[in-house]
Amino acid sequence: MLDRDGFRPNVGIILLNQKNQVFWGKRIRTHSWQFPQGGIDRGETPEQAMFRELHEEVGLQPQHVSIVARTRDWLRYEVPDRYIRRDARGHYKGQKQIWFLLRLVGHDWDLNLRATNHPEFDAWRWNDYWIPLDVVVEFKRGVYQMALTELSRYLPRNDTRNRYLRGVRHKDMLADGFATGKEDGTSAMLMPPGMELPPGASFDPDPQAR
Fold first, then answer.
1. How many structural domains does the chain have?
2. 199 — pLDDT class (breaks 50, 70, 90)
3. Range of the domain at 121
4. What are the strands, taking DSSP E only, across the chain?
5. Using alpha carbons only, what angle is made at residue 127 by residues 200 and 99, rounded to the nearest 5 degrees?
6. Structural domain contains residue 2
7. What global pTM score does this model have?
8. Residues with Cβ within 8 Å of residue 97, at least 6 apart in sequence
9. CA terminus-to-terminus distance, the chain
10. Does residue 1 form part of some domain?
11. What is the mean pLDDT of the chain?
12. Which of 75-79, 90-94, 130-134, 172-176 has the lowest mean pLDDT?
């Protein structure tokens, strides 16, 4: 479903924990990190699509989150030709997105990267709101900056520090610690310094798989 300009309607999700850190997902079998996102199906509202994608990609249900804000208008990015299927070139141009800012009111252990048979991510972690954009695929960085900037007004003032730490590299994120989802449903955990989890919590992408 494309608009007249060749953009597919889409939603993006910025998920906050109680410390105003944001959820990062690592795209399965790649080195790219991103926020949850996905297309809006015919007949869906952006909010309905957001809740569907939230469950499909990170396993959360509506009761696990509260909606803090959303972007006022569509934010667009173009996809380079090399990422577009040959049969779609010439009429597909990219994505137009409504971005939602959500707060997790559930627990870390409610997250489940294997809620469906087609997982989007194989690792996740929490990071500061003003995230290092160098680990995002290049053509999405502009729309990430626009979404984060527009929605930052809904954060406490002290969370506008360290904006866009572009010098932080992927290997530095690994050194800080993250969780890796394995095929058997277990996780290799490297806890970030200062991370606090409630008793029984873990970064396991699928707690039921044990």
1. 1
2. very low
3. 7-193+202-209
4. 7-16, 22-27, 33-34, 37-39, 65-70, 75-78, 94-104, 121-127, 179-181, 187-189
5. 110
6. no
7. 0.75
8. 9, 10, 11, 12, 37, 71, 74, 75, 76, 77, 143, 147
9. 39
10. no
11. 80
12. 172-176
